[in-house]
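Table S2 (text version). Query chain:
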Amino acid sequence: MPTKTPSPAKQVEDFISKFDPAVAKLARLARRAMRKRFPTAVELVYDNYNALAMGFGSTERTSDVIISVAVYASGVSLYFVYGRSLSDPKKLLQGAGTQGAFIRFTGLAVLDDPAVDALLTAAEKRQKPPLRSSGRGYTIVKSISAKQRPRRLQKSKPTNSK
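Corresponding structure-token output:
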């Protein structure tokens, strides 16, 4: 008998629960904040080799993602897909990419920074097609990699020293 695929919400929670509790908590906070900020967005979820990525955009196309919540064993980032095209006078955006850039998400206080708010607003405004003005967004699990990096930091083994 074929097994029923869990709902996207259940799948995403299962993906997040693989991380250390502190990282999982940050991931949930960031995801909830982006869903609140972009209530009509389509959420595209990729449980990839390197990270869990939850992108928010205007369509089901990856190229229409405005921002992603990227979850790694070491922490959570807000990844601006077209970050290098945004005005960033406070130089908050990190990364060496020519297109994308990120901000480390250490908690909800990050979103209280007016410069971060300005980046989110600018990213949304540059989005073509724009987000719908009404309705509710939904979640699609786009891919799940069979092979993945560890979702928890590996504890180093003590060395025997004399």
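Notes on Table S2: The chain has a mean pLDDT of 92. The helical segments are 8-17, 21-37, 109-112, 114-126.
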